[in-house]
Amino acid sequence: MSAIMQLTIFPLNKGKGSLAPYVARALRVIRESGLPYVLGPMSTSIEGEWDAVMALATRCQQALALDCDRIHVTMQVDWRDGPSGRLTQKVRAVEERLRTPKGKC
């Protein structure tokens, strides 16, 4: 079984400057988890078992809560009873179709 979580997390009480240091803090937690992930410009996609990705989101929140009084968290999850590896397979499937001549799906 596999869950792909799209996670967006950042503080709301840290002024108008860059939030990159806080996003990097959460990303360190994600990287240290050992779960496969892809960093994007607006969110990070993480793949793992349901309990593992949910626990990881909690650890990210706890890491920011050390000095952030208000934290925005958005999560979307695609859970599927099936094999792991979908984080890369889903992208590869679309890229393969882009190489197919137009009109041949």
Question: What is this entry, summarized?
Answer:
The protein is of the alpha+beta class.
Describe this structure in words.
The chain is α+β, with helices and mostly antiparallel strands and about 100 residues long. The chain has a single domain, classed as Alpha-Beta Plaits, CATH 3.30.70.930. Helices cover about 40% and strands about 25% of the residues. It contains three helices and four strands, in the order E-H-E-E-H-E-H. The protein has a four-stranded antiparallel sheet with strand order 2-3-1-4. A hairpin with a 4-residue loop joins strand 2 and strand 3. Helix 1 runs antiparallel to helix 2. It is globular and about 50 Å long. The protein starts with a strand and ends in a 6-residue tail after the last helix. The mean pLDDT is about 95.
